[in-house]
TrEMBL record:
Pathway: Bacterial outer membrane biogenesis; LPS O-antigen biosynthesis. This is NAD-dependent epimerase/dehydratase family protein. Signal peptide: none annotated. Belongs to the NAD(P)-dependent epimerase/dehydratase family. PANTHER family: DTDP-D-GLUCOSE 4,6-DEHYDRATASE-RELATED. It holds the Pfam family Epimerase. It comes from Rhizobium helianthi.
């Protein structure tokens, strides 16, 4: 039986992934330090859905007749000795690495958050790679990166899957062919850490022949998966605050609450999107199709489609009757950009993704309606500013 250790398995993507793999017959373990739950407390924010404690979640899963999922409470960035022990005990065939601070706005708030995001994300990734080398384990590392590493510079070039084949004219006048990592253009400290992860992966795959897959994921939308629907205690988290709420989920929440959908700037930003159900499928497909020892890092774009933010707002507005409000953009980014992302890797493995259609909004709208009493309005507005030269956002047009 294939063993998979899910690092960050209490989070939005990690929890449904752990359940999906368990339901598919994998032997699954979870490691997490609950930092995400603690950050909610720090921000005075909450998941709109009432998420059970991890031990309640795990016992609900067991009561449904699935395998026991052991849990290791460990800070990957700090507890290196404990990480070695966990790896020695669990002996995973694959590790799925979600355990990073994942909010771009949070990473930009202040010096403390910038330093935390770098120290947490870089150390967590590096500790994992060093530990596998120290233990001489041939564990396949599947890491969740982001499409954002490519940058959103408005070019019409379809984003390749991680690598760029280039011809360089050398000083001797000859032409040299190289395949290089696509030059990163991080738009936040968070994205910068994901760019730095890529270099660590390149080094460890080459130097130590670690088998690594890096998934460049788009913005995830939706809440539930086939497995999290099976019991109320398994419900997935739903973030809607200005730091962790992702754009489409926030629009759906604002529509239910009767608030205007707040679009940053002109809403001309184009982003990649994927449904949470497809996230868990992609991760399983990545585990089932590992690279060989000595291969370069396998990079897949984990994106179903790209959409412009104002088009999404209009789509939600036409479905729900909500108003759209344009507010100052707190981010330092192009007002408008084109984005096309190739996803040949997963489509060749048979992924047939859920695409954004209005009927796909029903479940999220229903869940938001059910838990509307838990809504904390004060947390929704984006609070982080990207540069020293900005002022807090205002509604500019309705
Ligand atoms: N959610 C998205 O839309 C999205 C999009 C693209 C990429 N991703 C990537 O997917 C991964 C998971 O995202 P998510 O939305 O599930 O985030 P999340 O914050 O909900 O989950 C991350 C989990 O990792 C844990 N964690 C963080 N640092 C840790 C540490 N040092 N030691 C142990 N555990 C730690 C947290 O407690 C949390 O449970 C992230 O790396 C993120 O960058 C997410």
């Amino acid at each position: 039986m294939t063993s998979v250790l899910v690092l960050g398995g209490d989070g939005f993507c990690g929890w449904p992934t752990a359940l999906h793999l368990s339901a598919k017959g994998y032997r699954v373990g979870i490691a997490d330090n609950f930092s995400r739950r603690l950050i909610d407390e720090e921000l005075g924010a909450n998941s709109l859905t009432p998420i059970a404690t991890l031990s309640e979640r795990l016992s609900a899963w067991k009561q449904l007749g699935y395998g026991e999922i052991p849990f290791y409470e460990i800070d990957l960035a700090k507890d290196y000795a404990q990480l070695l022990e966990v790896l020695k005990e669990f002996r995973p065939d694959a590790v799925v690495h979600f355990a990073e601070q994942r909010s771009a706005p949070y990473s930009m708030t202040n010096a403390r958050h910038k330093r935390y995001t770098v120290e947490n994300n870089i150390s967590a990734t590096h500790n994992l790679l060093v530990a596998l080398v120290e233990l001489d384990m041939d564990t396949h590392v599947v890491h969740l990166g982001t499409v954002g590493v490519y940058g959103y510079d408005g070019s019409e070039l379809a984003m390749p899957e991680g690598y760029l084949d280039v011809i360089i004219k050398g000083p001797d006048g000859r032409q040299y062919q190289r395949s290089i990592l696509y030059p990163t253009q991080p738009g936040s400290i968070y994205h910068m850490t994901k760019s730095m992860d890529q270099l660590m992966f390149q080094f460890f795959a080459h130097n130590d022949r670690l088998r690594i897959t890096d998934l460049h994921q788009g913005v995830v939308w939706g809440i539930q998966t086939d497995e999290t629907r099976r019991h109320e205690s398994l419900i997935n988290r739903f973030d809607y605050d200005g730091d962790y709420g992702t754009v489409l989920n926030r629009f759906l929440l604002q529509a239910v609450m009767g608030h205007p959908l707040t679009v940053h700037g002109t809403g001309g930003q184009t982003r990649g999107f994927i449904n949470i159900q497809d996230t868990v499928t992609c991760i399983r497909l990545a585990i089932e199709n590992p690279p060989h020892q000595g291969d370069r890092v396998k990079i897949f774009n984990q994106v179903a489609e790209t959409r412009r933010v104002r088009d999404l707002a209009k789509m939600v507005a036409s479905h729900t009757g909500a108003q759209v409000a344009y507010v100052d953009n707190p981010r330092n980014e192009a007002a408008e950009n084109e984005l096309e992302v190739l996803n040949l890797g997963f489509s060749s493995l048979g992924l047939n993704p859920i695409l954004l259609e209005q009927e796909e909004f029903h479940e999220t709208l229903q869940i938001v309606e059910r838990y509307r009493s838990r809504y904390v309005e004060a947390t929704v507005a984006a609070r982080s500013l990207w540069t020293r030269h900005q002022k807090p956002g205002t509604i500019t047009k309705e």
